[in-house]
Amino acid sequence: MPTLSTSTLSAPIQVAPAAVSFADYQAIHQEQQRRRYPEQPASKSVASESWKMKAWRWVLVGAALFTVFSLVRPKQLVGWLILYAISTVLGLLHQWWKYRQAYRQLPDKQQATGFSAEPKGVTVTQAGRSRFFRWTDFYSIQQVPGWVLLYTSVEHCYYLKLSLVQPPATAADIERLLVAQDVAPTTELA
C-alpha cells in the first residue's frame, strides 16, 4: 500500500482554480462513453466500429457507386458528391452541437473551481464559496486521462484537473492520497 510523505500529510494539496473548457468537457465525456460502451469483439480496434468510421465507409461505397454511375451520366456526379459531403459535415456538426448544448446546461462547470485535498477530504471552492466533502461523501470517484471526477451524485460532479496541482505536490500525490483513503478512483464506469 503506497504511503504519503509527512510533508504531504501536514499540508493540504492545493489545486489551482480553473474552469472546465468545452474542449475538455467534450474529451472527458467521449472517454467516458468509450469506457461505458466498449466494443464487444476484443480483436477489433477501438476506431473500427465508431459511427464516424461506419459513415465514412458508406460515403466511400456511395462515392464509388456514383462514380461508376457517373460514367454514364457525368453531370450527376458532382451533385451527389456535394450531397454526401454536406451530409457528412451536418452529422459532425450535429454531434458537436449536442455536446455544446449539454455543456451550456451546466453553468457551474464554466466557473473556476479550486480544490484543497487532505486525508480527511477535499474542500471545493467555487464562486467565492467553499464546501468541504469527506472522501466518503462522494458517490463515485473516477479518473480519466488528466482528470479526477468527484461525483457528489449521479448527475453532478466536480472536475479536478491533475495538471493544476500546485508544487511541491504532484498529481501522483493526489492519486496516493485517494489510495491511502481507500477511495482510489475507478477507471471503469458502471
TrEMBL record:
The chain crosses the membrane at residues 55-72, 78-97. The keyword Transmembrane applies. It comes from the Bacteria. The keyword Membrane applies. Keywords: Membrane, Transmembrane, Transmembrane helix. This is YcxB family protein.
